[in-house]
Amino acid sequence: PYKLKGQLGFYDRAVVRDLLAFVRLAVNSRDNMALTRIADIPKRGLSAKPLKVFSVEAARRNLAIADVLGDIMILAQLEEKARTGARQLHQLLARLRQRIKNNIGPRELLEDILVQTNYMAYLEGIHAKDAEKLSDAKEHINELMLVADEYDSAEDFLQYIAIMTSSDDGDDERDQVQLLTIHAAKGLEWPLVFVVGLEEGVLPHERSMATHEGIEEERRLCYVAVTRAAERLYLSWCAERSGGASNRNSKKGVKGATAPTKRSRFYDDIEAYGQELAARRSSKQ
Questions:
Q1: How far apart are CA 38 and CA 117, in angstroms?
Q2: Number of C-beta neighbours around residue 86 at 10 A
Q3: Is the pLDDT assigned to residue 132 strictly greater than 90?
Q4: Are the beta carbons of 4 and 138 closer than 8 angstroms?
Q5: 38-77 per-position pLDDT tens digit
Q6: Is residue 168 part of a domain?
Q7: Fewest CB within 10 A of the end CB: N or C in the chain?
Q8: Separation CA 280–CA 122 (nearest Å)
Q9: Does residue 175 register a pLDDT over 80?
Q10: Domain that holds residue 188
Q11: Interatomic CA distance for residues 247 and 245, integer angstroms
């Protein structure tokens, strides 16, 4: 048995929930809960009052709220700002649904959402007096992008999110393997730890390899991972990998295709340090 641990906190953060709500609406226009969340994010005049007008009419017709956003009769009842905002949101959701039909990947979909909604400017506005919160929000977006980059479809991406957020914290963990990300493992410790995916393109991640600063940040993340073990640590990597970062460019679109991987430079650093430490101990004996 296993337990997916420590992910609810990340996926429950406001910035992550906002962006995932847009993705859910792109996949399923009948997700009224998602629409209610982002109707006025960023601010477009669709506060609770005008949104209720759409909600009541949608319920009367047995339709989703998203399906009536462009309804002329409903728009005529609203003030100009709300009317304009409703049209903008209607057009945005239509655009996102079309991009889903064109088989755009979840990362590209998220990038489009950020641009079309001007979401980063919205964040800068609400966190204008708190640089740390703004930095944290941007970091959460980057991490969500890294997760999305591992999936070829928005549907698969959302299915993964559903699994990661469905763990039952009431279960007894003593006889379960704990599965969690390195970020979620910060501050925790176990007698036995397995660190998987020590490959170039995974750890360090391919999008962090272009700069020295990116590599060093990944190195710090690797340090967090290997120092979670109190007694024994296992490091592993794949000789070849299907999908994801390893062969995204070389065999994109080929179902089941695999590509060879290269062992992470961090493993080599750890191995070299271990050999040096063993030599020192041997010389003292």
A1: 10
A2: 25
A3: no
A4: no
A5: 999 999 999 989 999 999 999 999 999 999 999 999 999 9
A6: no
A7: C
A8: 55
A9: no
A10: 181-284
A11: 6
Strands (E), the chain: 2-4, 177-179, 190-195, 229-235, 240-242, 258-260
Cα–Cα distance for residue pair 108/95, rounded to 1 Å = 13
Residue after which a domain boundary falls, among 163, 196, 218: 163
Is 100 a member of any domain? yes
Beta-carbon count within 10 A of 170 CB:
5
Q: Report residue 136 as tokens.
A: 């944290």
Q: Give a yes or no: residue 171 inside a domain.
A: no
Same domain for 109 and 151, yes or no, is: yes
Classify residue 234 as exposed, middle or buried by CB count within 10 Å of its CB (0-12, 13-18, 19+).
exposed
Compute the distance between CA of residue 238 and CA of residue 267 in angstroms, rounded to an integer.
Answer: 13
**For the chain, what is the domain count?**
2
Q: Is 168 exposed, middle or buried (0-12, 13-18, 19+ CB in 10 A)?
A: exposed
> Pseudo-torsion of CA 115, 182, 34, 136, nearest 10°?
-50
What are the tens digits of pLDDT across the range 217-263?
999 999 999 998 888 999 999 988 875 444 444 444 455 578 899 99
pTM over 0.85: no
Residue 102 shares a structural domain with residue 159: yes
Whether residue 171 is predicted with pLDDT greater than 50 in this model: the reply is: yes
Residue 34: pLDDT band by 50, 70, 90 thresholds?
Answer: very high
- Tell me how far apart the alpha carbons of residues 75 and 50 are, in angstroms, rounded to a whole number: 9
Percent of the chain exceeding pLDDT 90 equals 54
Say if CB 191 and CB 231 are below 8 A apart.
Answer: yes
pLDDT at 168 over 80: no
* 18 and 152 co-located in one domain: yes
